[in-house]
Amino acid sequence: MFNPSPLLRRICRIASVFLSLTLLFVSCRQADPIPAEIPESLPAEEPGELPGEPVPEEAQPPETEAPQTEPEPDDPLANFVPAIRLAVCSDTHITDTTNERAVRLGKLFDTAYRYADAHPTYQALDAVLMAGDITNTGYESEFKALNTIIRKHIRPETQLIATMGNHEWIGGGPDVFLACMSDTLDPHVVINGFHIIGLSPRNTNDYPAAQIRWLKEELKTAAEDAPGMPIFSFRHHHIKDTVYVSRSWYTPDYAMVRKALGAYPQVIDFSGDSHGPMNNPLSIWQEECTFLNTGTLYYFEMERGMTGGTLPPGKENAAQYYIVEADAEGRVLIQPYNLLTDDFFKTPSNTDDPDTQLRYWIEKPSDPSTFLYTPDRGETASAPYFEEGSEIALDKITESSVTVTVPQAKDDQCIYSYRLVAETEGHRKEVKYFSEYYFEPMPETVSCQVKGLHDGKTYTVSVYPVNAWGVEGEPITSSFETPASVIVPYETDNPVTYVGTFTDFESYKRLRRSTDNGVFGGEANGDYFAGEWNGAGIIRDTVLSIEEGHGFGGSKAGAVTVNASSHSNRGLYLYADAVNHIPQDYPSARYLRVWVDFTGIDFRKACFGFVTKYDELYSTDDIDGRTDLPFYCLAEGESEWKTMYHGTDGCFGAAQSSSVQDFKGWLAFPTTDFAERTGSGSTFDSRSIKAVYMYFDLSSDDMLGTPFYLDEIALVDDYRVFEKIAP
What we know:
- The structure is a single chain.
- The protein has 727 residues and is an alpha+beta fold.
- The protein has three domains: 82-378, Purple Acid Phosphatase, chain A, domain 2 (4-Layer Sandwich), CATH 3.60.21.10; 393-481, Immunoglobulin-like (Sandwich); 501-716, Jelly Rolls (Sandwich).
- Helix content is 13%, strand content 28%.
- The chain has seven helices and 36 strands.
- The strands form seven sheets. Strands 23, 25, 26, 28, 31, 32, 33 and 36 form an eight-stranded antiparallel sheet that branches. Strands 3, 4, 5, 12, 13, 14 and 15 form a seven-stranded mixed sheet that branches.
- The longest helix has 21 residues, at 6-26.
């Protein structure tokens, strides 16, 4: 996207018209924006193969004549004749040959060849670079599936150059990668005089000193062999504080890697891991050299900071890669391609012509003074704005929620997100949500459901547009009134002490273990289920029992014990049904409050949540990437509640910088921070539940066999108020 100056923007628009006209000559079908025909000057080729394995034959498209067009005289691409062409991708996460990811990878090869075949001057696809997480777990069976897909689509002219990612370490590790995919972990390949250098992580995401020394030597060799020419490098993990999502996802060795690469400004570096969309303006970043984010063929993940976490609704609609070309002068053209639209990405600016193609142009890679995609873009970015007459639409107003819809604001670079503020006397609710710029075409409107409002109140709602650089524009506003709620009295047949009690474990005659959890299959048929934290499997080594003297004030408590050989993730569900007489409806469910005794216990990670009457699971674990989700603690013998925060995985515990080791007392959790397990972005907004859920993993095997205790689980309006039931 050329917009550092009016002149460059004009140049870029002319270039776009030129390429559009070129493609128009070779394609007349909207479904095939890149022509499928092979130019007459090239013979039809059979699909390629990997060494030693057969390839099925496929019919070739009919031959046709390559287009001949005259470029505009001031087009920066007028004399650009590629001398090398690469397709660059990462995070394909292949598991088999038939699922959506497999189809997308096959289409990557097909579309890259279609583009190459139709090119007027250079018809080769020289290499496909795969920058890690090319399989989902790195097992041999997944590499076999990956190779089957590649064999079906690759041609002999094309080299496949791959590196490992952290997911390749889950299964077989380097041995399986080397046996199935490559003869080296760190390739250095020269194609048509251009150097390509790849790095595979050691121990999941590390790049040790010996590897960095090797990288420096290879970079030196490349720079001496082809002075001033681009050096293409690729690796799975980002360099911190460069491309989009690198503020959240990066290798711990980023400083050493960056120093090595940055010594050569002609380096053009590709990295993945984060699954960030490549049409975000920050997905190319130029300082000492050039860095690019390679996107994904699997699902999107975003930078932290949004209310719904880093995984947006519709996250699975992600399939993108780069076509990268360089000419004999060293100039580089990078074109992001969207496999879901079967076309090149358009600019994320919604003030441009909607057909303007997104291109990254590097005139002289060895000269940083010519770089267009520097941090200065943010310093000069103008504020986004709503067009005159834009209005907020309000819908589905309930006693505690409202759906707010706005027309997309305008920005000359990228409308990134919105900040919504709903205010009434004594209450303020703020929600941050994405604009969905990463979908093409970008929706004309965007909606957000605001939950956790107070009933019977008049709210003013303001929506502020925010661009990719964090620059905020002026809001549009509206107002609405939430209806007064009908108070459901708290009723239970169990002899409990406090209003809102779910269970105090006093009334159980015996605990019935359910064979299913209802969320992931079957129907709950007991008082509790202990098993997989994210699945249907029952795990018998995890047991809930009733013990005297370990609850609040020396009462009964639920004792949770893991009698396994090693600690791992567990899910515990406590159900309300007609047998145990636990109520499912409550006057308020703003907070979940529970008394705990974690003496001798430290969790690696843990969290609480709810299951609704419709078997929907909500928990804080389903809001990733935030560090502002509070929970509250009142230690035994203390009088003041203290605030702690869940970590970036939506959990508390040692691995989340919020250890509760040896804690004994009360915990409380805002239930509006419980998000749906499906990834819809929906958060809990009800006063009815079917079960209380707890996810946990112990920090050490030393804690196996040591119980922790739960008691006085309650759903309340104010966690600080202990309202006793009237006699």
